[in-house]
Amino acid sequence: MNAHTEPTSPRRLLRRAEVMDRVGLSKSTLYSRISSGTFPKPVTLGSSVRWVESEVEGWISERVSERDHTAQAGGMSGGTSSGGTGCPLAA
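Below the sequence we write its predicted structure tokens.
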């Protein structure tokens, strides 16, 4: 190892089924989000693909942070307002 190389921590690659299980997205939603740039791109290994575990975990952490920030900034969306304007959800 030369002086300019940082030591790397071991990386684990996840199969699509593992990713889908961790994030709770269907295959089509997963690939749609990859196409739109809102989910980490997979690594191609021959005819299969894998996701870097740390990138998937980072994506999950971002969603949790967004949720927590939204909750601190004024609550959760989708509920009824106190203004009596009615339920925002369609029946």
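The chain is about 40% helix and 10% strand.
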